[in-house]
Design goal:
single chain, 231 residues, mainly alpha, 434 Repressor (Amino-terminal Domain), 2 domains, elongated
Length: 231
């Protein structure tokens, strides 16, 4: 472990039904499915689908999961509907990262590194470290993570507890996920897009700490991106 896993403070946890229902509605529309088609695919009634999209707490959790799995959103139950007490002891199991985290205004008052804020109100489009991208807790622990629950709520998504990467951690995660794990170029963002907000020296410091664990090609790819390559 290259970073100390400092304790994290917990927050009161609101019910997650509305957030999951909202994400299901967005995902259904994105997939081009009518409520009737989704009902047919899941074996549920249209009335139940409508109630789920409204976050109705009277609908059985199993039916929420059936619809979420049909839409590829089963990961939400790990993020929204869980006991967060274990996270007081160290690195959270999941957190917002990558492009999603770069669109969040960080806790220190800086503006977002990117401005695609419309995606923040749609949980089905979120990039979650530990689900969609590499979780780098084994490399740098909790460094650069913050409790974004209240900030996410400003975009209409109320969840029990949402952790997020700050801009530097989000960039670090993107580099590790792309260059080391997937062995490809960093998609959709260039260093010149974010260098007015992101402290690239901090990113370089974390990369230097992890160099013994990185392949030669990954180190070269990361350095190339940080130096403005991949244009």
């Amino acid at each position: 472990m290259l970073a100390i896993e400092a304790p994290m403070t917990q927050r009161a946890s609101p019910q997650p039904g509305a957030a999951i229902g909202l994400a299901i509605r967005y995902a259904r529309k994105t997939a081009g499915l009518s409520g009737e088609k989704l009902a047919e695919a899941t074996g549920l009634s249209l009335r139940t689908i409508v109630k789920i999209e409204q976050g109705d707490g009277a609908v059985a959790l199993g039916r929420y999961k059936t619809v979420a799995c049909e839409l590829g959103l089963e990961w939400m139950f790990d993020v929204f509907d869980r006991d967060t007490s274990d996270e007081a002891l160290g690195t959270p199991k999941y957190y917002l990262s990558g492009m999603t985290a770069l669109c969040l205004p960080p806790a220190d008052g800086r503006p977002p590194a990117l401005w695609y804020t419309s995606s923040l109100s749609n949980p089905s489009s979120w990039r979650i470290a530990g689900k969609h991208t590499a979780h780098t807790g084994a490399l740098i622990g909790v460094a650069g993570l913050w409790n974004a629950t209240a900030t996410i709520a400003q975009y209409g998504v109320v969840a029990p507890c949402i952790w997020a990467a700050n801009p530097e951690r989000a960039v670090f995660d993107l580099l590790i996920d792309s260059c080391e794990i997937r062995q490809c170029r960093v998609p959709n963002v260039q260093v010149t897009d974010i260098d007015d907000v992101v402290n690239l020296e901090q990113v370089r410091e974390w990369v230097a700490q992890c160099e013994p664990f990185l392949a030669d090609a990954a180190r070269e790819g990361i350095e190339d991106w940080l130096n403005g390559g991949h244009q």
